[in-house]
Amino acid sequence: MCLPVKRQVLRALWLFAVLDTGLLLDGGMLYPRESSSREVKELSGLWVFRADRSPSRKQGFDEAWYKRRLEETGPVIDVPVPASYNDITQDPAIRDFIGWVWYERELVVPTHWIRDDTIRVVLRVGSAHYNSVVWVNGVSVTQHEGGHLPFEAEVSDVIRKDPTGSCRITIAVNNTLTLQTLPPGNIQYMNDRTRYPDGFFVQSIYFDFFNYAGIHRPVLLYTTPKAYVDDITVVTDFSDNTGLVSYIVSVKGAVTAALKVTLMDKQGHCVASSNGPFGVLKVQDVKLWWPYLTHENPGYLYSMEVRLNAADGRTTYEDVYTLPVGIRTVNVTSTQFLINNKPFYFHGVNKHEDSDIRGKGLDWPLIVKDFNLLKWLGANSFRTSHYPYAEEILQMCDRHGIVVIDESPGVGIKDIRSFGNASLSHHLIVMEELVRRDKNHASVVMWSVANEPASEMPPADYYFNTVIKHTKDLDPTRPVTFISSSNFARDKGAPYVDVICINNYFSWYHDPGHLEVIPIQLNTEYENWHGKYKKPIIQSEYGADAVPGVHVDPPVMFTEEYQKIVLQNYHKVFDQKRAQYLIGELIWNFADFMTTQGVTRVVGNKKGIFTRQRQPKAAAFVLKERKKLS
Ligand code: BDP
Question: Which residue ranges does the record assign to the Glycosyl hydrolases family 2 sugar binding domain (predicted)?
């Protein structure tokens, strides 16, 4: 549905009001970009590392390791950033380490950052898993709870205390999960000394991927002028061939500032401009943002340049920030998902940030390879199961037209104690951090607040009503879902979502070995859900483990043949229901991935259609052929 221009303006103003009230977080989280007024200094590479192996895991704090160079406190090793630390060494105690680890990096800050006090210097951590405390030159600058999302701190004053510009960054990161973290976990001490050594404990987790830890995404320093563009929110729409970009800019460091907003096409030609902190840009002959394979020119992005000019008694400031903007709409009916008013079918995958050696560390060769594989497969979408992925990946999605269901780390909420107020407050903050970071990505078309929570438990009703409502308030322009696995009749989250997303593993976890049950059970499942809620359905997970290279015919579980037939049997039902209310199918999983050790996992989860090294199993060709046909 396209809104008339006046309603657009009203909606933008209303959005502004919503964004301004009831928020738990202060300030924006724009991706750091260089411009004529901003510099970026990446700190990727080797950092110094020490795990605190003391029984209490508190030695580092007791001895204040942040006050001097880490190597002066005891033995240190080299670790790369970004990367998980778990698979870097030959030491099983590091792989399975739980508690505080300490990272340190020394650098020299450019002289003008020190001398020029009209410059603001910010330290940003793309993500660190899970709880982080950060010091610069021994001074505490910030702490953050939660992996998968960025955090930052202004460090201008701290670095100016040392005129030589020498800067020592210390980051302590703790991967301990509790019943109140997202995802939740629980430490259990084993006190039977006839069976376990002194101090023995394990961390129980309720999710099926390895709890990789460390600094997973780039750490960097960047600058802005003292008066700066703090945040930008865009909402897009179109009417006939006119594109509409409603924007709101928030400014910090100046009481008044002049703002000029210019929208440029790919060739750098100005297509619309405006002045002031909010407004609507009208783009004639708009080139809409289309998903991959739905248009000859998918992923079209404009550039929105925001130029700020401000002055105080002493000096003038100019700040420039350029945001990529894709113009598109998203709407949901009881049977369809519409992008730009056209029905969109999610031909997609579920992924993990996971690979050999790096664990969950951001890795450009892997990212580019995965996008090439998505295209080879003919996939147009993925879900960020089960946590927010790196911003760099979403930027690729914007540019290539890959549609994203953006998921919070609300995975494994299974214990009734994880539905209390502390958990709920944290979940609301995480949703704010997620929406704040990803709201301007054209590729992001839906928020997922959780995966397979124990939603039949009584407190789940209030919990998910609150989280979903808050997410809708934060962003009224995108649908919200959560991923269900439990019985449709008892599910406490489904009434509040816009799209029903369901995971099931017929002929695997239920009726193992009986491929013939898939069509009847899947059909029953769909009819029940749609009959009850009258909402469109996405098959958000389906699949089977296949150990690559293992072949048996007639098929048995764990062979490539079995995985293929599971997929084919699901596809028969998808093709019937697609004509009615099924709006997507996301295979579990794109690639094999590491899990915790256990009797149901053979060096990780093998439900990938690609191996962990990104080589195709037989099932990958089934999907590739299928996507060609549709
Ligand atoms: C699903 C979970 C996913 C697991 C998958 C499996 O959402 O995280 O990896 O099962 O068991 O229910 O393979």
Answer: 41-225
